[in-house]
Amino acid sequence: MTSNLDEKGLRSIAGEYDVFFIDIWGVLHNGLNLFQNSVEVLEKLEKNKKQYVLLTNAPRPNLTVIEYLKKMGLDEKKAQQVYTSGQAALDQLKTMNSKSFFHIGPPRDFDLFKTFQNQKVEKIDSCDFLLCTGLFDDHKSELIFYEKLLRNYTKKKMICTNPDLVVDRGNVREFCAGTIAKIFEKLGGEVKYFGKPYPEVYEKAFNNLRGKKVICIGDNLNTDIKGANIQNFDSLLINNGIHKNEISNGIKELTKKYNVNVNYIQTELKW
Predict the structure, then answer these.
(1) Rounded to 10 degrees, what is the CA torsion of 99, 100, 105, 109?
(2) How deeply is 47 buried, as exposed, middle or buried, from its count of CB atoms within 10 A (0-12, 13-18, 19+)?
(3) Domain range enclosing 244
(4) Looking at residue 34, which CATH number applies to its domain?
(5) C-alpha 78 chain-centroid distance
(6) In a domain, 206, yes or no
């Protein structure tokens, strides 16, 4: 049974939890502006001595996202709670710094590999592995381009640093690295994912969750909510995000479609 928190707010259940994993894009901001009600939630959690992590499938290091949030207006203390899928991937990538890679993604993601950028090659046929952080700026929507690009290289392993399929930047929906990874898998390739819903990112984001009562808050059933289910954490779906156009049939039908369980729903994150 899924409970709606629109009237009672997060405050009505916050006392039950020790740790809050809170998604960023779609919950804290929309890619353009911070949601002030969500910022207030962080303030209330701090006031009530609750621990939280701003857990995001951003394919960049923590510091890059921290600086981005500060530019949007989030204060230093809150921004420092960020943990990214890119940061989770870095540990493994650093052990592979003797291997060459072909990068699939925009220049804004270059921070991810700046310490081993000399291993980046310009031709896909000469790389040891594929590093997918997103889509090329000049091929943001042409998925057939990636099918053609990858078709002959399925023997190479791909590392995907953002399992999300899509994201909404304001009112514009954009493809993410996860969409390219799925194309590669359909072609027969092997992908190693970093980020939600995979367990590793939770373990890296918070040291020792044993004995803690945890809730995951996010707008994506495939990542935020599925990740919570895999970890046996409770979940709160923000239904004005990625799935806002699907929720009209009701939460029961939506969770059945995505094969997930949702404990709570809220239109937007509010205390």
Answers:
(1) 60
(2) exposed
(3) 3-57+197-266
(4) 3.40.50.1000
(5) 18
(6) yes
Judge contact between 22 and 55, C-beta under 8 A: yes
Distance, in Å, from the CA atom of 117 to the CA atom of 48, rounded to the nearest integer, reads 43
Q: Which helix (H) or strand (E) holds 202?
A: helix 199-205
- What whole-number distance in Å separates Cα of residue 122 and Cα of residue 167? 27
- From the number of C-beta atoms within 10 Å of its C-beta (0-12, 13-18, 19+), residue 141 rates as exposed
Beta-strand relationship, 166-169 and 172-175? antiparallel
Q: What is the pLDDT of residues 120-172, one digit of tens each?
A: 999 999 999 999 999 999 998 889 999 999 999 999 999 999 999 998 888 88
Residues 172 and 245 in one domain: no
Question: What contacts 241, CB < 8 A, 6 or more positions away?
Answer: 26, 27, 168, 218, 219, 220
Beta strand ranges found along the chain (DSSP E): 3-4, 19-22, 51-56, 82-84, 101-104, 129-132, 157-160, 166-169, 172-175, 191-193, 214-218, 234-238, 264-266
Task: State pTM to two decimals.
Answer: 0.93
Number of domains in the chain: 2
pLDDT at 169: 83
Cα(189)–Cα(25) distance, rounded to whole angstroms?
29
Q: State whether 142 and 209 are in the same domain.
A: no
Strand order across the beta sheet in which 214-218 lies: 3-4, 264-266, 234-238, 214-218, 19-22, 51-56, 82-84
Two tokens, residue 206: 């918070």
Q: Is residue 75 part of a domain?
A: no
**DSSP state for residue 165 in the 8-state scheme:** S
Number of helices (H), then strands (E), in the chain:
9, 13
- Residue ranges of the chain with pLDDT lower than 70? none
